[in-house]
Write a structure and sequence with these properties.
Elements (H helix, E strand, L loop, with lengths): L4 E6 L7 H15 L3 E6 H4 L6 H5 L4 H12 L2 E9 L2 E2 L1 H9 L15 E7 L7 H13 L3 E2 L4 E3 L15 H21 L2
Parallel strand pairs: 1-2, 1-3, 3-5, 5-6, 5-7
Antiparallel strand pairs: 3-4
Helix pairs in contact: 1-7
Length: 189
């Protein structure tokens, strides 16, 4: 069987993003399991605020590459920080740009398994963001996988060497990645 292709998308506009740190960990783990992984950092995409005019006026090379990778992907991980009970504006803006996939056959993320991670700064944060992400995946016609998770206290997830230090976070990421590989392989034609 061909390698499973996974696209990891997320991060924030902040330097040292915990969300991007978790995605990096997931990407390395997926690679160690034999997956072909593409990681897209929202900040590096430098997208203007979405409008149909901006979508049709020629998007940058980084975004075009991401869309190519998404079309080819067998599975996707989406990760967003939580701001005021929902996804970040930068994350939502990128999801709005997925409108470019409306004319693809099949459209949007149809038939692609999608795992989601929501990261917040308080103890119980992330859960409403995860629900928002479910709604986004649902509306983009993806298959929302149940191992998605929310994590609070994001500032404490990494040690001083920027190594993921929470055993619970590591366990959740590995479970999410293992499920994504399994489901992607089952759905791969």
């Amino acid at each position: 069987m061909k390698k499973i292709k996974i696209v990891c998308i997320g991060g924030s506009m902040e330097a040292g993003s915990s969300t991007l740190g978790l995605l990096n960990y997931a990407a390395h783990y997926l690679t160690s399991k034999g997956a072909d992984v593409y990681l897209a950092n929202i900040k590096s995409l430098a997208l203007p605020v979405f409008s149909y005019k901006s979508m049709n006026s020629g998007l940058n090379r980084s975004f075009k590459l991401l869309i190519k990778k998404v079309k080819e992907a067998d599975g996707i991980i989406l990760a967003s920080p939580e701001y005021h009970g929902t996804v970040s504006a930068a994350f939502k803006n990128l999801m709005d740009y997925f409108e470019v996939l409306s004319g693809v056959n099949p459209p949007y993320l149809t038939g692609k398994p999608v795992s989601c991670i929501a990261i917040g700064g308080a103890e119980n944060s992330g859960h409403s963001t995860l629900i928002s992400m479910f709604s986004i995946v649902y509306n983009l016609r993806g298959i929302f996988l149940p191992s998605g998770f929310a994590l609070g206290y994001s500032v404490n997830l990494f040690d001083k060497n920027k190594k993921l230090s929470g055993a619970g976070a590591v366990k959740k990421i590995k479970r999410l990645a293992d499920e994504l590989i399994y489901v992607s392989a089952k759905l791969k034609k």
